[in-house]
Amino acid sequence: MSELYDAILNGNAPAAAEAARQALEGGAAALELVQSHMVPAMDEVGRRFECEDYFVPELLLAARAMKAALALIRPLLASSGAEAAGRVVIGTVKGDLHDIGKNIVASMLEGGGFEITDLGADVAPEKFVDAVRANRANLVCLSALLTVTMPSMKTTIEALSAAGLRGQAKIMVGGAPVTQRYADEIGADGYGENAAVAVALARKLCA
Amino acid sequence: MRLKLISCEVLYREMCAAAARSPHQVDIEFLPKGLHDLGGESMRAWLQEAVDGVDATRYEAVLLGYALCGNGIAGLMSRTLPLVIPRAHDCIALLMGSRERYRSYFENNPGTCFRSTGWLERGEDLDQAALLIARYGEDNGRYLIEQFNGYQRNYRQLAYIATGLEPDGSFEQRAREEAARRGWQFETIHGDLRLFERLVAGDWDESDFLVVPPGWRVKPTYDGGIIKREGRGP
Fold this sequence. Notes:
- The complex is a heterodimer.
- In chain A, helix 8 links the parallel strand 4 and strand 5.
- Chain A folds into two domains: 3-79, Methyltransferase, Methionine Synthase (B12-binding Domains), Chain A, domain 1 (Orthogonal Bundle); 87-206, Cobalamin-binding domain (Rossmann fold), CATH 3.40.50.
- Chain A is an alpha/beta fold.
- Chain A is built from nine helices and five strands; from the N terminus they run ααααβαβαβαβαβα.
- The longest helix of chain A is centred in the first third of the chain and has 24 residues, at 56-79.
- Chain B has two domains: 2-89 and 193-230; 94-190, no CATH class.
- Chain B is built from ten helices and ten strands.
- In chain B, the strands form three sheets. Chain B has a five-stranded mixed sheet, with helices on both faces. Chain B has a three-stranded parallel sheet with strand order 5-6-7. A two-stranded antiparallel sheet of chain B has the order 9-10.
- In chain B, strand 1, helix 1 (12-20) and strand 2 form a beta-alpha-beta unit.
- In chain B, helix 1 (12-20) packs across helix 10 (194-201) and helix 7 (128-136) packs across helix 8 (138-148).
- The longest helix of chain B has 13 residues, at 40-52.
- Chain A binds chain B through residues 11, 13, 57, 60-61, 64, 95, 97-100, 103, 121-122, 145-148, 150-151, 154, 176-177, 179, 182, 185, and chain B through 39-40, 68, 70-71, 89-90, 102-103, 106-107, 110-111, 132, 135-136, 139-140, 143-144, 147-148, 150-151, 154-155, 220, 222-223, 226.
């Protein structure tokens, strides 16, 4: 499809940055690079992950390559006034320090054209509330890797409800021990079984 | 009673000590600590196979030396014998002797990494670094190692759970050295073997143990009880 697309798919960060630089120098539009090359590349990465052709390392390396290209493209994107696919606040819930899954989802969403505010790990409910307000976010992504910290997802959703932000922002949850059933139980708007489905889910929730 | 205990090898010393003092005959089968890394569905499938392999004519119950373990026991079913499981999120709670004590420690000591004899001597981690570099090349390999170990940036303390079963101070010393190497604070906390002892003694109070009758499944509750039995299976 293109050198940029291939570089991202192959997890080659230097090649991705170089391809982006050359494309921009050749007069390509920033938004066009994202929409026609990077988003399809990350979609393909997600597809390959779904059919177990790619695994977590490939996801991480594709995200790394995507970010290397995005670092060059983003400043131009901002000045072009392009609308993000959605404004996302993401974090691992209070008490939980795991962040790989959350980082991968953040990268996939970023590659999918979303604007990301990453609050990191061990994030208290009130920090999510503040960040959603400050960033006018329309999507909140909560991650938990421990059954012992899963109840923090519930308290975070309750805090967002109490702050009257549920109308403004949809909530999606994920993490190894999290299930659709638990997502339904705590009133989340969506559950992603893995990083690959996160982007499609986010697009649906932000539509 | 004759009891079959299927346990994670990370609890090897604790389970052997408890079994030795049980009034019952306890046969133990240890499974690899690596199931912890497989997690979820894969861990459950492995455990289900072990449970299904128990000769129902020889035992009166199957005991699990596991906690909820990241939903690794969710959906597990005993077909012919009752299945007995301590109510806990993970083995750290078992080693501490109660889930309440674990919760309180967890909340008051964020960023703590735990060690015990089993965590120190069992299932040495693969040389993941070498494998990743060989597979993905130097630059991408190092990047992956950094990403996989990134969570450790968030740790501040290492706690060694001493059970009193150790032959000498060498385990504690190893844990102390690991903490120093990683630049974390170190603390020794005293474990409590009561849950192990009660598990193999048949003292299965409903508040601390879940007894799953044949045909029923284990389900997570996501509340203080941690696990429950559900439905009648096929």
